[in-house]
């Protein structure tokens, strides 16, 4: 790992995106009012945003642009309580009144569905009432989570104040070894930087290994930028971005218009990681930055494996975990919950035979949703239980009892561990 400071006069990628959104040239540290290209709410945070919008604009008001707002149900679906059902009813009514697109029929996790359905473009400013909205940075977008009250203001005006963030270039160099993934890379980076080491920075992922990452791999890395305090986690758009979006966005000019790169003479900090010798990483309870190489993790029995979430719930993730399981049954005493990130990803798994393989091994394959990640709907842990999860947070009480223990890993490690019954190095399978 190396670190240095580069101070010159050009603009970073994030400064360029916010300059376009603010209709003027901006630099880090300035406060700007920026136009918003897209806004997203879900079933947990949406009701407060709707309430705030009507309080700001009046009961008969219309949102600034219904074509730029997307509503999704993913946290508590199907409704697991009367309160959740009431929230769903309220949001369906709001979407109908305002003519807003509503993915309420179990399409999947918001951060998978948004880019999958073509709502994310390079160079866009996209806001969501969820901290992991930074996932869309994988496509070259300036994407960040905001509070429900801020979103109410966005609904009314289409704009929001920002302080332009400083940029930290995270150079991911080398080549990831076999069975070591982008999740391991980002866990190592978070472990080194710390949970607040990148507070309000634009983390820009570059370098040889970063450029080789697929879109699913990039989404995993951008998704977890918030776990080191970053405002955004962004990859410069490139040919990989274009290939993914061309089948999802009809306007090819709109895709290419967002292909912005930062200037080499811009002001930024830079740190470097070479991943060529990286081993699988584990985030130990109860903080995401409490990261150890798997060789330093003591033998730890597990009660549950959670494979899914907006971090690692894509087809490629589930396929990798299945390969590690090698058609073996789950270890005695281990539960496994598999939740594809979206309906489309579920169908890929179904057609590839993964659903059958997981179920024959003894796993439960659930409909696309957030599931156990935030301790909602199902998969809660009891006191003293240990879960190995491919999700993004392992705070006390995150997945059930405050006396439970959550460890974070890659899908490869999750699959290997599911058949051994303890946290296992996938390179040993």
Describe the protein's architecture and organization.
With 429 residues, this protein is α/β, with parallel strands linked by helices. It has 2 domains: 272 residues, 2-Layer Sandwich (Aconitase, domain 3); 143 residues, Aconitase, domain 3. It contains 15 helices and 19 strands. The chain has a 5-stranded mixed sheet with strand order 1-12-9-10-11. It has a 5-stranded parallel sheet with strand order 5-4-3-6-7. Strand 3, helix 2 and strand 4 form a beta-alpha-beta unit. Helix 2 crosses helix 5. 54% of the residues are buried.
Descriptive keywords:
429 residues; alpha/beta; Aconitase, domain 3; 2 domains; five-stranded mixed β-sheet; five-stranded parallel β-sheet; 15 helices; EC 4.2.1.33; 3-isopropylmalate dehydratase activity; leucine biosynthesis; Aconitase_4Fe-4S_dom; iron-sulfur
- Mean pLDDT, all residues: 91
The CATH homologous superfamily of the largest domain is named Aconitase, domain 3
Total domain units: 2
Measure the end-to-end span. Answer: 29 Å
Tell me the structural class: alpha/beta
Number of helices: 15
Largest sheet: 5 strands, mixed
- CATH A-level architecture of the largest domain: 2-Layer Sandwich
Give helix % range. Answer: 25-40%
């Amino acid at each position: 790992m190396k670190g240095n400071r580069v101070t010159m006069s050009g603009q970073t990628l994030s400064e360029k995106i916010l300059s376009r959104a603010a209709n003027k040239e901006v630099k880090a540290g300035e406060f700007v009012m920026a136009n918003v290209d897209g806004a997203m709410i879900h079933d947990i945070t949406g009701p407060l945003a709707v309430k705030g919008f009507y309080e700001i604009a009046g009961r008969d008001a219309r949102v600034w642009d219904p074509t730029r707002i997307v509503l999704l149900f993913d946290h508590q679906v199907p409704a697991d309580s009367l309160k959740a059902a009431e929230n769903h009813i309220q949001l369906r009514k709001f979407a109908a009144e305002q003519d807003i697109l509503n993915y309420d029929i179990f399409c999947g996790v918001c951060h998978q569905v948004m880019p999958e359905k073509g709502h994310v473009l390079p160079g866009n400013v996209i806001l969501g009432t969820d901290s992991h909205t930074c996932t869309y940075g994988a496509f070259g977008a300036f994407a960040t989570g905001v509070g429900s009250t801020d979103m109410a203001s966005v609904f009314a005006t289409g704009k929001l104040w920002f302080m332009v963030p400083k940029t930290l270039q995270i150079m991911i160099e080398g080549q990831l070894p076999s069975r070591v993934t982008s999740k391991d890379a980002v866990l190592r980076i978070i472990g080194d930087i710390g949970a607040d080491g990148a507070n309000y920075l634009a983390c820009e992922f570059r370098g040889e290994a970063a450029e080789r990452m697929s879109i699913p791999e990039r989404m995993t890395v951008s998704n977890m930028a918030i776990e080191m305090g970053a405002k955004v986690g962004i990859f410069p758009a490139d040919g990989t971005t274009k290939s993914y979006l061309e089948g999802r966005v009809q306007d090819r000019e709109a895709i290419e218009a967002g292909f912005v790169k930062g200037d080499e003479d811009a002001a930024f900090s830079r740190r470097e990681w070479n991943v060529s010798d990286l081993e699988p990483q584990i985030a130990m309870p109860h903080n995401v930055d409490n990261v150890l190489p798997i060789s330093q993790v003591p033998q730890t029995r597990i009660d549950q494996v959670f494979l899914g979430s907006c971090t690692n719930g894509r087809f490629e993730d589930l396929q990798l975990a299945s390969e590690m399981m090698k058609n073996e049954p789950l270890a005695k005493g281990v539960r496994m919950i598999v939740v594809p990130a979206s309906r489309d990803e579920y169908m890929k798994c179904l057609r590839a035979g993964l659903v059958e393989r997981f179920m024959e091994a003894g796993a439960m394959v659930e409909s696309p949703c957030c599931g156990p990640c935030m301790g909602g709907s199902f998969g809660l842990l009891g006191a003293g239980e240990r879960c190995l999860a491919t999700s993004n947070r392992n705070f006390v009480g995150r997945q059930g009892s405050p006396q439970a223990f959550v460890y974070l890993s890659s899908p490869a490690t999750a699959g290997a561990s599911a058949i051994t019954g303890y946290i296992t190095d996938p390179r040993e399978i």
